[in-house]
Fold these 2 entries.
Entry 1:
Amino acid sequence: MPRLVMKFGGTSVANIDRIRRAAKRVGAEVAKGYDVIVIVSAMSGKTNEMVGWVRETSKLYDSAEYDAVVSSGENVTAGLMALTLQEMGVQARSWQGWQVPVLTTGQHERARIEDIPNANLNAAFDAGNKVAVVAGFQGVSPDGRITTLGRGGSDTTAVAFAAAFDAERCDIYTDVDGVYTTDPRVCDKARKLDKIAFEEMLELASLGAKVLQTRSVELAMRYKVKLRVLSSFEEMSDAAGTLVCSEEEIMESNVVAGVAFSKDEAKMTLISVADRPGIAAAIFMPLSEAGVNVDMIVQNISEEGRTDMTFSCPADQVLLAETAMKAAKERGEINFHDVVADEAVAKVSVVGIGMRSAAGVAAKMFKTLADNEINIKIITTSEIKISVLIERKYMELAVQALHDVFGLDKAA
Amino acid sequence: MPRLVMKFGGTSVANIDRIRRAAKRVGAEVAKGYDVIVIVSAMSGKTNEMVGWVRETSKLYDSAEYDAVVSSGENVTAGLMALTLQEMGVQARSWQGWQVPVLTTGQHERARIEDIPNANLNAAFDAGNKVAVVAGFQGVSPDGRITTLGRGGSDTTAVAFAAAFDAERCDIYTDVDGVYTTDPRVCDKARKLDKIAFEEMLELASLGAKVLQTRSVELAMRYKVKLRVLSSFEEMSDAAGTLVCSEEEIMESNVVAGVAFSKDEAKMTLISVADRPGIAAAIFMPLSEAGVNVDMIVQNISEEGRTDMTFSCPADQVLLAETAMKAAKERGEINFHDVVADEAVAKVSVVGIGMRSAAGVAAKMFKTLADNEINIKIITTSEIKISVLIERKYMELAVQALHDVFGLDKAA
C-alpha cells in the first residue's frame, strides 16, 4: 500500500468536533487506498497549561522532567484520534514515542531524531491497521527517558516519519491555507503559491513566515520528502495548499518567489571605532556571548584609522547590545566614540531560486526602492535572497512595490 | 536504606501549592533516612476531563485507547512532583509505568499487576536518588501497550510497590484523616481508630466506607504491607491517621471495630414462587446475567409447594431486576405471583475480628434494634460481620444505638 503522512496541529485538534473533522480527512485518504501515519499535536492550549505548571514549580527546572510532563498532551490527542477513527469504522491505534520507538538524542527539550525503526508500525499495518496515530513532538532517549523536539517539533516528527516510511507525501494541516508570496495583511495582492522550493521556504521561514518549523523543512530537503502545507478548515481538494518540494519539480517559476519582512529590527552603530586587525572579532565576540543575535553587518570605509561599524539585531536586544559594548570598552577591548541605536527600522527581503540564473534582480530591487524615495541603510545578499534594512515607516510601501515590480500577483 | 512508600491522591496534588505541601512531607521522610517511592494520582478533575473526551468520541470505545488517554494525568503529576522535590534540594526523578516497568495483564481498564521488577528503581537509588516518583494507576501489558488498574487503582499501585520493594510502611495520603468507627456525619460520637485489622477494613470498605480501594487492602493483607491512611491537610505526626495491619499487631481491640451502613439499597420480593429443586439458580442466574448485584438473600418457609423469595440489591438496579425476573417468567423458567420492590430500606452492619471469639454479639445487636422498635427485614452474617436490612428512616437511629451499645466511642 502507498503510504501518506498527515500532521494535524493544535488548532486542528482543539476539541472533539475538530478531531472528528480531521479524522474525516484521514478516512478519505484511507478510502483512496493509502496506509496513513497521522501525527498529532496537543489540543491547543494544553501544552501552554503544562509549561505554566512546570515554571510554577521552579525557575531552573530539570529538562528531563519538563519533557515527561509536556509530552503528555500529544498522548491524549493520539488516543482520542484513534478512538474517533475507530468510531468511523477505520482500523486505527495510537502510538506514543517510546512505543514506535522514535529514538532521539538525550538533549531534553531539543532532542534530535536519530532513527525510527519501522518494524512495529509495519507489523500493525500488515495485521490490517489502516492508520497509525503517532504522538508528535516526542521521542525516547538512549537511557529510556522521554524527550521532546522543541516547539513546533511535531512538524519534524511528521517529516521524519515520511522519510522513514517512504511516504508518497507529508501533508501538514494547519490554520493557514498555504504559503503566500507575502503577508496578505500587508499587501492585498499577495497570492498563494502552488509550489515552492525547499530553499525558498527556508529563507522565508527564517525571515518570519512562520508556517513550518525550519528544522522540518531542512529534513524534508535532505530526504526529498514532498511536503504540503494546507488548512484543516477548508474543503478537501488535491490542489489545496502549497507543495514544498525540490526545485526540479517546479517547472515554471517567477524569478522571485516571495517578499519577506521583519519589523522588529534595530540598527546599532558604533561611531569612530579604532580600525585595526581583529576589531570585528573584538566587537562581535562580546555581543555573541551576551546573547545578541546579530544579523546584518556593514563597515564604513576607514578614514584616518577610524571607522563606523553598523549592525542589526532584534529590537528587544538593543539594551543588551549597548551594555555589552560599553563593558567591552571599559575593559579596553574596543575603543569607540559613541554607540547609537535606531529602533525605527525594518528588514525587507526578496527570495527566489530563480535569482541564481537571472541577472539584475538586485538592481531592480534598489531602483524600485529609490523610485519610492526609500533610503537603504544596510544591504546583505545570499545566492537566493537580497535583504535591505530601511526606515520602518516605509516597510509596507516597500513590500507592495517589490511585490508589484517582480510580478508576484501573477503565476509564472 | 529503609524504604517507605507514600501515595498522594488527587485532592492532595490538585495544584502546584498542594504538590509543594505534599513534597514537604516527602522531604521530611527523606530527612529521617528513608529512600522514598512516591505514588501520585492525577490532579483532581483531570481524569474526569479525559474520560469525558473519550466518551465524546464514541459510546463503545476501545479500552486500550481509553487507557492511553486517561493514564496521562498521572504522568503530569509525577513530573511536577519530581520537579518540586528537586527545587527543594531532594534528588528525585519521575517514572511512568512502562519505565519502571509495572508489568500487568492485558485487560484494559481493569488490569492486574503481575510483577514489578525492581532493578531500574534500585539502580536509581544506588546512584544517589532519594525519591522515585511513580505515576500511579498505570502499567504496561505483555504486548507493550499502556494499561490502567481501574478507578482508585493508585492505592493498589502503592501497595504493590511497598510489597515489591519491601517498604517499612505504605502511607496513603488522602482527604480524610483516617478510618472511623462509623461516619461522623451520622453519629457524632464516631471516633478515629488508631489501628484496624485488614479483614475489618475489607468489610468496612465493601460496605461503603470508601477510604481505600478494596483491592489494595486485599493485596496489603496478602503481602503483610503495613498500610497507613492519613490526611495530607493535617499537621505531620507519627501517630496521625489509621494503621491498617495484621490482627497480631493489634494488642487490644473492641469486639466490634465499627458500624457500617449503606442507604442506597432496595429489597425485592418474588411472591409465591413454585418451590422446587434448582429454583434459586433459576432466579439468580438471570439476575447475574442482567448485571444485578444481589447482596442478601432470604427464602421463607415453603407452604403447599410455594414460597416467597426475598433479596436485596442497589436501589438503582430495581428496574433491571424486575425486567430480568419478568423475562424469565415469560420464558417459563420460573413461576411467581408477583414481584414487589421496597426501595425505602438501608443496610446496617457491625464489623469486628473480636466477634470470632466473643459470643452474644448478634443477640446484643438484635436486642438493641428491638429496644428501639426497629424491625429487621433480612439478616446475614459472616465470621466478622453481622448485617441487617431495616427501614431507611431508622438508619441513623440504628447506627447511633449500635455505636453506643458496643462502646465504640471509647478506645479498647
Entry 2:
Amino acid sequence: MSDRPRAAILLTGSELARGAIRDANGPFLARELTRLGLEPARWTLVGDAPEELEGALREALAADLCVVSGGLGPTHDDRTVELLARATGRPLRVDAGLEAEIDAVARSVAERLGRPYAELAVGVRKQASLPEGAVSLGLAGTAPALLLEHAPGRLAVTLPGPPGELRRLWPRVLEAEPVRALAGRARRREQRVLRFFAVPEAAVAREVERAGGEGEGLELTICARNFELEVDLLVSPGGEPRAAAVEQALVAGFGDALFSRDERPVAALVLDRCRELGLTLATAESCTGGLVGARLTEVPGASDAYLGGVVAYANEVKARALGVPEDVLARHGAVSEEAARAMAAGVRSALGADVGIAVTGVAGPGGGTASKPVGLVHVAAEGPAGAAAREFRFPGDREEIRERAAVMALHEARTLLARL
Amino acid sequence: MSDRPRAAILLTGSELARGAIRDANGPFLARELTRLGLEPARWTLVGDAPEELEGALREALAADLCVVSGGLGPTHDDRTVELLARATGRPLRVDAGLEAEIDAVARSVAERLGRPYAELAVGVRKQASLPEGAVSLGLAGTAPALLLEHAPGRLAVTLPGPPGELRRLWPRVLEAEPVRALAGRARRREQRVLRFFAVPEAAVAREVERAGGEGEGLELTICARNFELEVDLLVSPGGEPRAAAVEQALVAGFGDALFSRDERPVAALVLDRCRELGLTLATAESCTGGLVGARLTEVPGASDAYLGGVVAYANEVKARALGVPEDVLARHGAVSEEAARAMAAGVRSALGADVGIAVTGVAGPGGGTASKPVGLVHVAAEGPAGAAAREFRFPGDREEIRERAAVMALHEARTLLARL
C-alpha cells in the first residue's frame, strides 16, 4: 500500500446514484488530490438515503482526508452536514455570521429570478448549521464549503455538488492551514505520461515487465481508450532509474506509435504543429456533427490556428458549402473515401485554410447497408503538400463510433502534419 | 431504506481513481439496474492496489447483486478475478473451453495488428482462470464476463472495463437465469421526469413539500444543472395519488418553465418541433466550436431536420462563410448581439435552412476585456417568422461556459420554435 496520505472521495446525490446525470466532481477532486501528493484511494457514490450516506461517510472518515461533494443544498434531501455531525459525534450549531451571509445571497437570488424571497428563506437556517468545530471556507450560492478536523490530523471537507461551485471553492480548501499541513506530509511524486497510438495493451505490458516493471519508487498504469494507449509512470524519489529503464524500453519498442510525452491531447498537438508551421486549420464534419471542432476548441487559445469548420450533415450542405461534386456523391456516396477527400479539399478553399480535416461515416443506429454498415468511417486530411485518407470500421454504438471517428480524424491530421 | 433488491457497483482502475480518465460504466450500469427495478445503492471506485480492491469487493458482495467493471485484462494489474476468488473463498481454476476461445481471439488480434502472437499469449491462461462455480457469459476481446452466485440468491458479475465491451456483454447478464430471478423479486417502479428551465431549486422544493412531498410509494429527487432543473418522481404501486398531487402542483406553479415531461433533452425537442413544422435547421457557432451541432447530432435521426452548420471561430470565417457584414464586426465586435443575429441569418442563407441558431461569446481563459468579460455570451435564433437574441454572463471555467452557451442556444431555438 502507498505510503502517501490516504484520501477518500464521497459523492452524493440520488440522481447520480441512479445514473440520471454524470458526476464531474470525482475526476476533478482525484486529479487535484493526486497533484497534492495524496492517494485518492477510494471514491464512493451514494444516493440521498440516510443509511447509505451515513455508512459511506463513516468509512470515508477513516481516510486522512475525506472530501464530500453534494448534499449541502436547502432541501430536505440534502443531508450531508447533519450526517457528518452525527458520524463525528458533534452537535449541530447555527453560525450567526454565516446565517447573515447566506441570507444576503438568498435575497439577491430571489431578486434576480423575480421570485418571492419567502421561497428561499426556508433553507437559510439549515444551510447555516454546522457541526461543532467546523469552519466555513466560503459560499457558492447559498451553500458553504466546510472544513472539520474531526480527529487529530484527520480532516473532512464538504463542498457543494454543482461542479462549477465546487471548483470555485476548491482553492479555499487548498489554502486552509490543516490541508496544507497534510499535503506537507506527502512525498511529491513525478508523473510521466506516454501516449501511444494503435498498439496492443498486452504488448506494452510485456515490454514494461521485461524492462523491470513496477517496484520500489515506481507505480505504473496502462490504460487504453479509443485507440490511444496511455502509460502513466508515478515516480517517487529513488525510483528514477527504474522509471528510466521502462521509459527507454517503451520508446525503443513502440517509438513510431508514441505521439505524446507531455500530456497534451491529440487536438493540442495538431494545433501546436500548425502554429510551428504557420498553417491554419479547418474541419469538415458529417457523422461527428461538430465533435472534431469541439475537441479542437476545448484547447484554450485554439483560435490562433483553428479558423473554423463546416458541419455538413446533409448531402446538400456537402455540395453547397463544401463544393463536393454532385457526381462524387452520386457515384461513391456521402460515406466514401472520395467524399472525405473532397470535403477536406472543399473546407480548405471555403474557409481559406491551409489544412483541412474531414470525416464522414455511418454512426447508426439506422442508415447502415450491407456495403456501408454502421461503423464505416472515412477520414481525410489535406495540406499544402499533399493529402491522406483512411477507412475504418468501428465497433460500438452511435456515441462510441462518433467519438472514435473524431479521435481518428485528429490523428490523421497529426500524421499528415508530422510529414510537413 | 428501499424495499427493492440492493445493487452495488464496483469500478476499478488506477487511471480512473487518479481521475486521469472518466468512468462511463457507472452511469450506464446504474441506469440499467434502476430499470431492472433494483436499487443501485452504492458505487465504489478504487485503483488497482489489491488491499483497496479487496476491501471494496468484500463490501460490495454484501449487496444482492454486485457488478464489477474492470480488472479483467491480461496484465499484472488486472486483479478482479483473483480477488473475487479470495473474497468468496473459492479456488481459481482454468476453464479449458474458455482458454481455447480466448486463444483464438488473441491469435486474430495479433494478426490484425501485425504483431507476434507471443506478445498476447502470456495473458490467455490468466484470462481463462475462474473462481470455482463461476460461469462465462461470453467474451469481449480476450476478457470474459463472469457470473458467480456466491451465496444463495446473491450474485456477483464481472465485466470488462472498456465501455463498449461492457455494453456489448450486458445483454448476456440480463439473459442469465439468476439475474432474471433477482429482477423478478423487484417491484417495478414508474419513473416520471419533469424538466424545467431557469427556476430556482428551493422554489421547486417548497412547492413539492406543500403538495405532500415524498412518502409511501413516492421517492423524489430534484437536480439542477446548466439552468435546467430536473424533478424525478419514482412511483411504486400505491404511490400514484401522491405523485399526481406533486406533479399537478409543479405544473400549476411553474408550467411556463416546464419544457419536457418525457425525458427528451432539449436538442431532441428542437429537432422534433422542426419536424412537426416541416422546417430545416442550421447552426452557426463561435465559442462553442461545434458543441451545438454535436448535441443535435447525438440524437439518432437528426439528419431529417438538421442540415449542418458553420463553426465560425475566426472573424474572417464569420464574414466569409456566414456573410456577417465587416462593419458589424468592426463596430460591435464578434461577441455582440448584432454579430449573433447576423450569424443566425447568415447560416440560414448559406446552408438554405429555415431556422438558424447562433452563439458567440468569450469562453476564456484569455480574451476577456472590461466591457466584454470572460463568460459574456450572445445567442440568437432566426426562423421564417422572426428572430430573437439574448445576452448571458455565465460564471465558470472555459468548459462550463461553453457547455452553458450550447444549452442556452438550444433553449433559445426551442422558445422561438414554440411560437411558430
